[in-house]
Amino acid sequence: TSTSTIMETSTTVASSTTVASSTTVASSTTVASSTTRVYSSALTFSSPLYVRAGIPRSNAGFHYEAIPLLVEITTHYTIFSNSTMDMHGYIYQDTFNSLFPYENLLLEDADTAGNGQFQFARLLHRYTKYIIVVTTYEAVTTGTFSLTVRGPPSILLSLAETNPPDKIQWLFDGDLNDVYSRYNGQLKINGNNTTTWISPGYAGYGSAACFSSTNYMIVKKYIDLSSTKLTVSAWIWIPKDFWLLYSFPLFSYCTGVELDLCLHMIVVGGLLRVSFRGNDLSGKILLDVNQWHHVTYSYDPLTLQQRIYVNGISDGIQTAIVAFPQITDVITVGTSSVIPFTVPKNGFIDKLTFESRVKSSEEILDEATLVAYYPFDNSYDDVGPNRMINSTFLSTTFDSDGRFDQCLLINSTNLSYFQATGFHYLAQSDYPFSFSLWIYPFVNSGTILQVRFL
């Protein structure tokens, strides 16, 4: 274990000059007050490990600490490390996922401050969530460090877990755990366990879960949604015998048994619906049975605006009459006790995601429709929402003269290719698809893209 401390100092600088015994010429300059926050901690053998960005060795483990940073004034700040270890630092925006170290990455530094210490001089925006990831240049290194942030007053630097967190995500790949291990679910069983699993899940790999009114997922942990921006999304499969009076509860957040004390995301009669305190918003797009659909709900407590999306398309928008101020310590998935005049009929649910921000329509469309995205920026990785990992290549290199950043260079004289597999729904009916890519041909004939079934 390790302990951490935060120390704050404020400074005002003045200077004066005295000349000759009979004459005093004074110049007094006051520099605007500034705040220095020093955060002290340690990387130990119990600190989490990950493969940091920029490392070609996939088995290299680096101890790290992720430190949230909030500022209340938009201006330039200086951030630097101090340690006997050779340090490496990163700044992320919104969220940091150690499994995908390039996601949301803003800055990286190793030695700008000298002596193996990182330093950032950066314009930071008020009320934007930043995460400073402190790690080391060499793998499996431990020791103490301090992190200094200089800027105007009102720097908020804390290791305390924010509530609600930036992101909660349940993948249902054989368990009910949150990807970030903060809001792990439990299976609530009343009577026989009728929960079923299906494989593959929506993306052609992993799995998905189907609950029932008596067997469902429950998350017993305090979460504060009062005055919180939020976006909740999921992939769902509607069963073939889903009738008009059937309801498929997705996400429920209740502080009591009364309908007005619950925030629901539910499918009723084939239509997506969200409601809280009498603010019902129903969609108009009928969800086809026996097919995966991406559904999303967003809410902004500042404007009271609610939006729902089906497969990335806006399906409803309204301004709520009142805000949703409730706080609870229970979230349920797959059931709800206060949906009147309906019969529970669950389908499969996969990749349920909660984020404490309002996502843009462009982000939601990408999540719902983008299967894979390969930018080929010194990497063969898919950086789209599904992180397809089944790829091979032969006799290819990366070139700096890409249409956007780098590109993949295919050798036109020898056998050369890039191949990705695992696109499960290319072989299924009722799933339209399209491909797009930029090419710079060296010859006037050859295969650009080929789809085949293995």
Task: Note the main attributes of this structure.
globular; 40% strand; eight-stranded mixed β-sheet; ConA-like_dom_sf; 454 residues; Jelly Rolls; mainly beta
Count of discrete structural domains: 3
Distance between the termini: 50 Å
Structural class: mainly beta
Sequence stretches where pLDDT stays below 50 over 5 or more residues: 10-32
User: Sheet with the most strands?
Assistant: 8 strands, antiparallel
The value of Rg in angstroms is 26 Å
Helix content: under 10%
Give the quaternary arrangement of the chains: single chain
- Give the tally of β-strands: 32
Overall CATH architecture of the largest domain: Sandwich
InterPro entries: ConA-like_dom_sf
Pfam families: Laminin_G_3
How would you sum up this structure, described in words?
- The chain is mainly beta.
- It has three domains: 5-157, Jelly Rolls, CATH 2.60.120; 167-368, Jelly Rolls (Sandwich); 371-454, no CATH class.
- The chain has one helix and 32 strands.
- The chain has one helix at residues 361-369; strands spanning 5-11, 34-43, 49-50, 62-63, 65-71, 75-82, 87-93, 105-109, 119-124, 130-136, 143-151, 155-157, 167-170, 186-189, 196-198, 208-210, 215-224, 230-237, 246-254, 262-268, 271-275, 281-282, 292-300, 305-310, 313-319, 327-333, 343-344, 348-355, 391-394, 396-399, 407-410, 417-420.
- The longest helix is centred in the C-terminal third of the chain and has 9 residues, at 361-369.
- The model is unreliable at 10-32 (pLDDT under 50).
- Pfam families: Laminin_G_3.
